[in-house]
Amino acid sequence: xxxxxxxxxxxxxxxxxxxxxxxxxxxxxxxxxxxxxxxxxxxxxxxxxxxxxxxxxxxxxxxxxxxxxxxxxxxxxxxxxxxxxxxxxxxxxxxxxxxxxxxxxxxxxxxxxxxxxxxxxxxxxxxxxxxxxxxxxxxxxxxxxxxxxxxxxxxxxxxxxxxxxxxxxxxxxxxxxxxxxxxxxxxxxxxxxxxxxxxxxxxxxxxxxxxxxxxxxx
Length: 218
Prior knowledge:
By secondary structure, the chain is α/β, with parallel strands linked by helices. The protein has helices at 7-18, 23-26, 28-33, 51-56, 70-79, 116-125, 144-165, 187-197; strands at residues 39-45, 60-67, 86-90, 102-108, 127-137, 202-206, 210-216. It is 37% helix and 23% strand. The longest helix has 22 residues, at 144-165.
């Protein structure tokens, strides 16, 4: 299957700008289902406004969210109830990550902003034995499978935008104001390199131009 004609992505961008919805937040319930019912501690890398970190607080005794943008972490603190076991810090991953270990680490639509090998090594080294790493990432579409899932995602994306916005035009949610970057790595390369660094990791292409990586440390 060939890529979508160039005019179609441009039209989708205009539609999405008028009726935005957060593709990353759509994966949050799926991420929670990959984790044990209770964990002692969790780290959310690239936490943004803290939406996922607050959800993780229902599973974890304590949650720490880190983001490279001080404005985002400041907003995350304001949006998080004082009683929630969630803290936030400004850190540029992977070198700036806290020097401690966690039972769960999550990373959503951030890995393509980071040096791939170094980031996965940092996540691996900060995961306790038996701990779970869950990544939802973005890859560069290249293969027929990529283009097929992209084509399937288009009508679903339009339907979700209309459903969530009830047909009206709205502004972008604050969770979608972080800087974006086009991914450079393809899914086959990501899967190949990740399985070397994280033996036994499970990777799959997903709808809405995403992929998933789940790994449990032995």
